[in-house]
Amino acid sequence: MEHRSLSFYVLSFVFALFILFLYGPTITIGILSLQGPNGGLTFPMNGVSLHWFYNLFEQQAVGDIWGSFSRSFALGFMVMVITVVFSVMGGLAFRKKFIGSGFVFYLVITSLIIPSILISLGVGLIFNQLGWDVHWSTSGLGSQLTWTLPFGLLIMFAVFNRFDKSYEEAARDLGASPWQTIRFVVLPIIGPSLIGVALFGFTLSYDEFARTLLTAGSYNTLPLEIFGMTTNVTTPVLYALGTLTTVFSFIVIGVFLGVAIYLQRRKKRLGSDAHRGMV
Q: What does the alpha-carbon distance between residue 225 and residue 64 come to, in Å, rounded to a whole number?
């Protein structure tokens, strides 16, 4: 019993250290963002106020905070949609073996192990050689998809490996076309998983730095803008921006999780109704 108690306390201490290591920097930035008007970038605190949060909404002498935020949001949304669509299509395609399927799979997954800065450099060079403008919505989009699509595809592989094909067979027996089977049977069942793919796509794009560094062109995304501000901003307004972006990320995660829970409950409710109807 004493041995169990000792193990419990040791594991609890290790877990507490892990949580502190994981969230400690974020919590520190959140605290320092509440510095008073005369506060600096380090402790001790010089008063407590929301001054630097108000300062974010005033005209900034340096940087383009809200412009970069809107670009990151738009880019994240585009990456999310493309990742979901192509991940589902890829997952459906890989349900059956086809010539070159193994090569295509490893080709897609390889982009995960290539250093991100090399991906950014390569995409930027290709656009320059072809005479195309390097822009966050084109070259930046392409470089980020090399990061999000493999994750989405791996999730879809796991989903379809556990998918019960009898649902599709029943739909076909009832006269459903292939498209109707996908739309009214497959997609509703895998809906919660699609929310997970969408969340991966958006969040990985929203905070991506290295793959966007050389592909964003003249207009920064939010991570690039924050990085640039670290070299010339000497007030806690930088911490206030970091705190707001962190809160926004948690809100996005909460919304996605809420939708996933709703879809999961709806699927169970529809399944129960169908079961009662059969009885």
A: 7
- Taking the domains of the chain in order of start, what are their residue ranges? 65-232
Per the CB < 8 A criterion, the answer to whether 205 and 76 are in contact is yes
Residue 197 has a CB neighbour count (10 Å cut-off) of 27
What is the structure's pLDDT at 136?
A: 94
Distance CA 207, CA 212 (A): 10
Q: How far is CA 277 from CA 264, 265, 271, 274, in A?
A: 20, 18, 10, 5
What is the model's pTM?
Answer: 0.85
Supply the DSSP string of 100-123, one letter for each residue.
THHHHHHHHHHTTTS-HHHHHHHH
Query: Do 16 and 225 form a contact (C-beta atoms < 8 A)?
Result: no
Q: Are 157 and 91 in contact (CB under 8 A)?
A: yes
Which CATH class for the 65-232 domain? mainly alpha
> By C-alpha distance, which of 191, 234, 246 is closest to 31?
246
3-state secondary structure (DSSP) of residue 94: coil
Contact 223, 208 (CB under 8 A): yes
pLDDT tens-digit readout, 112-141? 888 999 999 999 999 999 999 999 999 999
Query: Distance between CA atoms of 83 and 239, rounded to whole angstroms?
Result: 31
Report how far residue 60's alpha carbon sits from residue 12's, in angstroms, rounded to the nearest whole number.
Answer: 45
